[in-house]
Design brief:
- The complex is a heterodimer of chains A (584) and B (161).
- With 584 residues, chain A is an alpha/beta fold.
- Chain A is 36% helix and 16% strand.
- Chain A contains 22 helices and 19 strands.
- In chain A, α17 links the parallel β14 and β15 (430-431).
- Chain A is globular and about 70 Å long.
- In chain A, 56% of the residues are buried.
- Chain B is α+β, with helices and mostly antiparallel strands and 161 residues long.
- Chain B folds into 2 domains: 2-75, ACT domain (Alpha-Beta Plaits); 82-153, 2-Layer Sandwich (Alpha-Beta Plaits), CATH 3.30.70.
- Helix content of chain B is 29%, strand content 42%.
- In chain B, strands 5, 6, 7, 8 and 9 form a 5-stranded antiparallel β-sheet that branches. Chain B has a 4-stranded antiparallel β-sheet with strand order 2-3-1-4, with helices on one face.
- Classes of the chains: A alpha/beta (584), B alpha+beta (161).
- The interface between A and B is medium-sized, with 18 and 19 residues.
């Protein structure tokens, strides 16, 4: 529980770019590589490692056996370790750490690393490797993990000199958390773990070719302010960068000053308080109709820490086609990748927003606001029909948690309903696999989030398909007394694929009905040692949620048997435009 | 549109794979590639020739900069450069045509670097056009084997990358 103190120390956290690790620099001390790794983790302020032991990390695990100030959480599958580190990082804003052995241990991390890469999440993955003399000989459990992860890491390392260990760790953590955050992998051959080194942790990194730009160009910021001042129908479209820069306060200040409505992507959720009158919900495929209409009509769109993903834009050349874009992103490669902005600004969203807010003039756009309000009235978010509806369940969870819980999701319909119906108030509150869309992400990520924030309530909104992809992590939650709550919206389908088959493949439900074979989740969770509940009617929803909320020492899963054929609406079909939007 | 790009990178293992892999992942076919160390032994220079639309190339250049080991990326599109390739060409050289081939070689300021009773091996350096032209001329004698290096490029004048 040491993590809690660090996180809740009451000190307002600076932007992650500036948050340095605890430095500990002294005279060199002799020790083996595995112990040096522990020292490095301490110097970086790491308090928890999600891992799974194996042959080529035995010396590291032997060190972990004695370490008291770094909590090791034993997962039940290495993919769970990567997702848990990812969930931990998103919930805390710190670098998540996962550890696995060579070969299959390392390859099992791959999906989790790719997931963190797509969503720009800072994690450091440490893998064991066969001894350096055995590399390249197809040794037992040998795999070229640096080769495999080259396209899905921000950077990776193979340690071939034990004396490089401190520098490598220092760089890895620095690279993971600065600039556009992302995963870094360190492949750690076993003989490097046992070799003796003179340990001294470097006090700074020497990476001349790596200098992320955090301050936006003053001229461009000035011009952006002019463009905003000239706007009649301004709109703000924010993404994950708003959350990773912790820029909610700056965003609210700017939006209020210029009277611009705000739409936030799936990864941006929580970056703007959702009960704010300027909030429009999510844009894109399953966004609100009014957010999409507003994008379509806006004359100036301020795009913040976002990459114009196809799930947001639909048909690219029709996206917000009446607007000039101001694109602010810390990654220069995102500027102009999908759309050509009128004004590109490379920099940290928090910094640039702060500067912009000072330079823009206070404005009011009553006509434009009125138009948007009319769309809100005309196309409200709603659902129809009888039976136990997934939307209702998410709404009840919202009610029971007063909108303060950390919401983690799996991937599919459950994810979209969670995004549409849970209204977040703060940054780092909504944790979901956006870019990669990894089924099985939710439960291990929820475990990571709960470990990062032990005082928060953490819900995993799940489907009956994706929960089964990493259900083994129930064992982790039970063993570590992690009280995550899982709401399975059980419709007996791989629901999102079923929805596409219904809408676009003449309802030919090819291999999406999983009712037969799906286990009794209540019994399953009880077999693990958690608490299982089942709800089949609306009346049962709130009592079950309350019962789950009262459990503090183990996981609880509620199996909600929901209306089978519910679709996620509204929907802009893939590659479509706002004119193609289906509303029910 | 063909682009010649110079990429200055840290001289470390795996950097070539990272750089070349990035081109493949973004759907670019590398026409030619030459790598060597530079006056600074810690720095290698890659000259890469690729074909693709300007806008996509700009994206590639930005993605290259994201690699930790990439120091500088230079597209030589709009500048005056010195460009060289080298080729080795093993050509059929029957007694009756040897004189003719030697004259062609002389005109191109190429060199015959190996001789057998049936073949000449010719070394030629220059721009791509010159090497193409020599290849065409030698084609009628029968080229048995040939190998070209990737293009290498430096800016003209005092300018450096």
């Amino acid at each position: 529980m040491t993590q809690q103190r660090a996180h809740d120390s009451g000190k307002k956290q600076a932007s992650p770019q500036e948050t340095g690790p605890r430095e500990k620099v002294g005279a060199a001390v002799k020790m083996i590589g595995a112990r040096a790794l522990m020292e490095c983790l301490r110097c970086e302020g790491v308090e928890v490692v999600f891992g799974y032991p194996g042959g080529q990390v035995l010396p590291i695990y032997d060190e972990l056996y004695d370490v008291k100030d770094i909590r090791h959480i034993l997962v039940r599958h290495e993919q769970g370790a990567a997702h848990a580190a990812d969930g931990y990082a998103r919930a805390s804003g710190r670098v998540g750490v996962c550890l696995a052995t060579s070969g299959p241990g390392a390859t099992n991390l791959v999906t989790g690393i790719a997931n963190a890469y797509m969503d720009s999440v800072p994690i450091v993955a440490i893998t064991g490797q066969v001894p350096t003399f055995a590399i390249g000989k197809d040794s037992f459990q040998e795999v070229d993990i640096t080769g495999i992860t080259m396209p899905i890491t921000k950077h990776n390392y193979l340690i071939t000199k034990a004396s490089d260990i401190p520098r490598t760790l220092k760089e890895a953590f620095y690279i993971a958390r600065t600039g556009r955050p992302g995963p870094v992998l360190i492949d750690f051959p076993r003989d490097m773990q046992t070799a003796e080194i003179d340990f001294q942790y470097p006090d700074k990194v020497d990476l001349p070719a790596y200098r992320p730009t955090t301050t936006g160009h003053p001229k461009m910021i000035e011009r952006a302010a002019d463009l905003i001042n000239s706007a009649q129908r301004p709109l703000i479209y924010g993404g994950g960068g708003v959350n990773s820069a912790d820029a909610q306060a700056e965003l609210v200040a700017l939006a209020e000053k210029i009277d611009a409505s705000v739409t936030m992507t799936l990864l941006g959720k929580g970056g703007f308080p959702e009960d704010h009158e300027l909030y429009l919900g999510m844009p894109g495929m399953h966004g609100t109709a009014y957010a999409n209409y507003a994008l379509h009509q806006a004359d100036v769109v301020l795009a913040l820490g976002t990459r114009f993903d196809d799930r947001v834009t639909g048909k690219l050349d029709m996206f917000a086609r009446n607007a000039k874009f101001i694109h602010i992103d810390i990654d220069p490669a995102e500027i102009g990748k999908n759309v050509a902005p009128a004004l590109p600004i490379v920099g940290d969203v928090k910094y640039v927003l702060g500067e912009l807010a000072e330079k823009v003039s206070k404005a009011r756009h009553p006509e434009w606001r009125k138009t948007i309000e009319e769309w809100k009235k005309q196309y409200p978010m709603t659902w129809k029909g009888d039976g136990l509806k997934p939307q209702f369940i998410v709404q009840q969870i919202q009610k029971a948690t007063k909108g303060k819980a950390i919401i983690v999701t799996e991937v599919g319909q459950n994810q979209m309903w969670a995004a549409q119906w849970y209204r977040c108030e703060r940054t780092r509150q909504f944790i979901s696999s956006g870019g990669l869309g990894t089924m099985g992400y939710g439960l291990p990520a929820a475990i990571g989030a709960q470990v990062a924030c032990p005082d928060q309530v953490v819900w995993d909104i799940a489907g009956d398909g994706s929960i089964q992809m990493n259900i083994q992590e129930m064992a982790t939650a039970v063993a570590e007394k992690i009280p995550v709550k899982v709401a399975v919206l059980n419709n007996g389908y791989l629901g999102m694929v079923r929805q596409w088959q219904t809408l676009f493949f003449k309802n030919r439900l090819s291999f999406t009905d999983i009712n037969v074979g799906t286990p009794d989740f209540v019994k399953l969770v009880e077999a693990y040692g958690g608490v299982g509940l089942r709800v089949t009617s609306e009346e049962g929803v709130m009592p079950a949620i309350r019962k789950a909320m009262a459990i503090k020492d183990r996981p609880c899963l509620i199996d909600f048997i929901v209306a089978r054929d519910e679709n996620v609406m509204p929907m802009v079909p893939a590659g479509g435009t706002v004119d193609d939007m289906l509303v029910d | 549109m063909k682009h010649t790009i110079s990429v200055l990178v840290n001289n470390r293992p795996g950097v070539l794979a990272r750089t070349a892999g990035l081109f493949a992942r973004r759907g670019f076919n590398i026409d030619s590639l030459a790598v060597s160390t530079t006056q600074d032994p810690n720095v290698s220079r890659m000259t890469i020739v690729v074909e693709g639309p300007d806008q996509v190339l700009e994206q590639i250049s930005k993605q290259l900069y994201k690699l930790l080991d990439v120091i500088k990326v230079l597209d030589h599109q709009d500048e005056s450069v010195v460009t060289r390739e080298l080729a080795l060409i093993k050509v059929d050289a029957e007694p009756g045509v040897r004189g003719e081939i030697m004259q062609t070689v002389a005109i191109f300021r190429a060199n015959i670097v190996d001789v057998s009773d049936r073949t000449f091996t010719i070394e030629v350096t220059g721009g791509a056009d010159k090497i193409d032209a020599l290849m065409t001329l030698l084609g009628k004698y029968g080229i048995r084997e040939m190998m070209r290096t990737g293009r290498i490029v430096l800016s003209r004048g005092a300018r450096t990358a």
